[in-house]
Records
---
Amino acid sequence: MNRYFLGDYAGGAFQLLGTPHLVALAIVVLVNLSLWRWRRSRRFGVAVRYGLLVLLVSSEVAWQLWNLATGKWAIDTMLPLELCGAMTYISVVALVTGNPIFYPLCYFLGIGGATAALLTPALGIYGFPHFVFVQTFINHGAIFTMGLYVVIFKHYRSKFKSILCLFLGFNLYATFVGIVNLILGSNYLFLVHKPPSPTLFDALPSWPWYLLYCEGLVFLVFYVLYFLFKIKYILHQNH
């Protein structure tokens, strides 16, 4: 097996905000700026839709196969219960069906979750150009782009009640995942302990107090994403 696909990679650990990390973030930013640049092109919108579908499906299949091939697949880590894992499947369903019921999830949870994962990915020993590094940024970058896609090309517009419903729904989902954690001895959504790699969790108190902080942060992120719509409305009214 190519050393860039090995499970015990020794080519260099991931460096937070190192050059490869910054380059990967820059690529994600440039890709998403192109959505706005060609927002009026129907053909470009169709290309984005199918491009996202290919990236999301292929990155998830590759992730599952790599974990199986390296003997790392386990039920307590590989179920799609993490936020971005769930959003991968939800985004695919949204792209295939075009059902707008999924758009609030793609916008709020997709952008919110993917942003945190892109800024502080829990990659551990897997630095660039290992498969895990590349897959992580392709997958989470596609989830982030999906959130913008529903706004730019599907014209999703948020209402305040959306963030209230989503916040309640997210807590119900977290409760369900917490029960799964108790049954499997897992740590999905990092409800049991913080991730071992450097992440935003490191700035929060220890368990269980960081869970309360996360509640506030989740609502804050939802509100900021909602407020972006309000800014656009205010600017439009002034003109």
---
Amino acid sequence: MANLKDIRERIKSVKSIKQVTKAMKMVAAAKMRRAQDNMEKARPYSEKISDLVATFLLDEQNHELPEVKVRDNIDKVLFVIITSDRGMAGAFNTNVLKVAHKAIDEFGKENAQLICIGKKSATYFKSRGYNIVLDYIDFWNTLSFDTGLNVAQDIISRYMNKEVDRVQVIYNKFINVAKQEVCDEIFLPITTSTESIDEENQLSDMIYEPSKQVVIEKMIPRYLNIIIWQYLLESNASEQAARMLAMENATSNADDMIKDLTLQFNKARQTAITTEMLEIVSGAEALN
């Protein structure tokens, strides 16, 4: 059994760690509230513009647009992997990296290009020799719409210049504070769902001003920019929620460890007291 000094030092160490995890939980909670608020404010706009684009795609003529037309041969795929810069967020990064790794290997590592958003994904795939064409790191604390535009333009330009034939984005979608879902979505070509749209009513009620072609040409780039921005907001809110939950669990585990160590300390102290008393009694008996 460990001596009293060792147990006392361990209790002190665990209490120090508990203070750190508790502080990190409070910081993550504050950041999560801001990130969740920004994400939820952006959702209605991104959902509405997605519905508009889906309505445009009801017209077969729009399927010939370069952002919509599916290419005959998919030789090169661009994978956009969104993770965080820092760890200590439970399985937040691990889940994304597992899905991304599997998807890339299934398509073929030699034909895949990667854009890594976040230091964790950049480090992971760089150490394994994957073809990383671009990475974005150390920007989450100052995340802005301009950052989202830059990311979107880099992705879109590679597709429009026919450097790649498809773009897939793998990220964490915010469901609630306790749950984040890893999504693997095709970003380009545009493949929005049209199942829930009443084709007859939508096409008959739609009025284009100044013209149908101009509206579509303006709407598609805006849609792509907004979707990338939404991906970033979802991932940021998911990261802070995962970190807050991880730090809460760590703090709870520290409390349990302190209780166990305190019990162990009391048992060791009682054993030491009993031993000393026996020694005293034995010495007194020897003298008699």
---
Amino acid sequence: MIAPVTLGLIIFYFYPFFRVIIDSFHNIGAFDKDMGFVGLQNYQTMVKDKEMWRALGNTFKYVAIIVPLSLLFALLIAVLLNAKVKALSFFRVIYFLPAITMSVAVSMVWRWIYNGDFGILNGLMTALGLQPRLWLSDKATALICISTVSIWTNVGYYMIILLAGIQGISKGYYEAAEIDGATGLQKFVKITLPLLTPTIFYVVIMLIISTFQIFSEIYMMIDVKAPAIKFTQSVVMHFYRSAFSYSKKGYASAIAVLLFVIIMLLTVFQMKMQKKWVNYD
């Protein structure tokens, strides 16, 4: 009975995983042509690749911006939608829509919003008497623009998870707090947040993993010849360009292995640190 699922996992998960590790020690060129075993040469090249380390630095910037802000907005909206308000189902659907919309379509829409010549954002700025900008070409704003799109996409999905966590908290705690005269803020700080930490822990892990793999927003919004590409390119974007633009699939495999190791180490670190702040009682 489990044979179909097991076969699917082997073909689509385990085989690609181990194939990437093996390819990272080979010189794989165009059309998957294996030109021989090269040992650690791909990893040595990666260590010397300034573009790779710049991309890694950009990726950490994405994580530093997207993870906390996505969590903050998702938590805020989840708390608001847990209250008794009119048209509650409507608001839940509206906030969740970005999560079920294709990331490519979302990126294309936001690219037009940020367009330096015809974009809605510059139109609003001009109407307000402000100076329009080339949002996706300026190195000072391009990374922020991409982060904004990613946050907008993430919030709805993680809002649903956090809302489910809030609704799973027993109402008896809040009733007891009301008897003791606790305010709404005190109930949130003393009851909701501590009992929601397991859900927050899960959301943080998933946000970090997904943000380290950020790609479609950059690929669709930033032209590879744009001046801002080196200030916005992520590790996955560099992996893609190495594999499919430069036909260096062995080197790209080494990049993928490095990304896997970084994510794994961060996840292990979070699992160790959860004992200090996650409350399972």
